[in-house]
Design a protein that fits this description.
This protein has one domain (20-145). The chain is built from seven helices and no strands. The protein has helices at 5-15, 21-48, 54-74, 77-85, 92-106, 112-119, 124-145. The protein is extended and about 70 Å long.
């Protein structure tokens, strides 16, 4: 079967099922919003009930969300949430924790050093590298402009 690129694209469009974009957007919005509401609720709890200053409460919220995300990833709950909500689970801190824990769990059978430790940052590593590089470049530009 010999097809041109445009014929192949038309064939794929005909064969591929339609994507329920509106439904996916609503699910992502609701789940992402619930994660953010959980973070806000934790912030209120840490400031009002644990009497932490705002900065310390923000740190405690971040640590709690990272631990919860890692725990839920280990229990295979976070992946089920991600299948349901799609991009809604990519709220930065929980999605990043999931991106570190998932490969670590996947490759643990290869051993601690060559499996877990080596593969832990396969997904998150480029994000860390880009973030650090971008922040250094931004800092240098800021220094030069001032």
């Amino acid at each position: 079967m010999n097809m041109t690129n445009s014929e192949y694209n038309d064939y794929i469009k005909d064969m591929a099922p339609g994507s329920p974009v509106a439904k996916d957007l609503v699910k992502a919005f609701v789940v992402g919003g619930l994660i953010c509401c959980l973070g806000q609720g934790l912030s209120v709890a840490y400031t009002q009930y644990a009497h932490l200053p705002r900065e310390d409460a923000a740190t405690a919220v971040s640590m709690t969300l990272i631990c919860l995300s890692a725990l839920l990833t280990g229990l295979n709950v976070y992946d089920k949430m991600a299948r349901f909500a799609g991009a809604g689970t990519l709220v930065p801190i929980t999605g990043f924790a999931n991106a570190v824990v998932s490969p670590a769990l996947e490759f643990k059978t290869e051993g601690f050093i060559l499996g877990t430790a080596a593969k832990m940052f396969t997904i998150a590593g480029p994000v860390i590298t880009f973030g650090l590089t971008a922040s250094v470049i931004y800092g240098l530009i800021l220094c030069l402009l001032q």
